[in-house]
Amino acid sequence: LRFSTELGRIGTNLLSGEDTELFMRMKAAGQPLWHCAGSVMYHRVGGERVTRAYLTRQRYWVGISYAILDLRLRGKWYQTTPAAARLAKACLVEAPRWLIAAVRRDEVQKLYARCSFAKQVGYLRATLARTQASASAERPVRPAPLAPAATGGPP
Length: 155
Description:
Layout (H helix, E strand, L loop, with lengths): L17 H11 L23 H23 L1 H29 L2 H29 L20
Helix pairs in contact: 2-3, 2-4, 3-4
């Protein structure tokens, strides 16, 4: 088994989940997976990667990645249930959470809500793009990137 070449960061896209997809395929194939709870990993992060705009954009692409994983490993019909749940979560949980945080001037909770909202939107957009692409062979399979605004609330 190998890492998927459809996932992973290439150029300016922030697709991810190639490791998760590999582990899910290994599990489905009956391959053993090992976990070392005592392990420590250091990952340096700096520059653009610590800005609100980058974090929001990265979470958006995580949503797209999850949609691709669900489609590839579970199928189009499975994907519709999480898409509906994510739409409800975005509207009923994340948008109000952001609004409450904005009223309270709580920047941490605003960022948390924005990132979660962006993830739900990414999943929904990828699901819709793939649904439309399957209906027409002329349309691209990969959704066009949507870069959420660096400031303000949920789109």
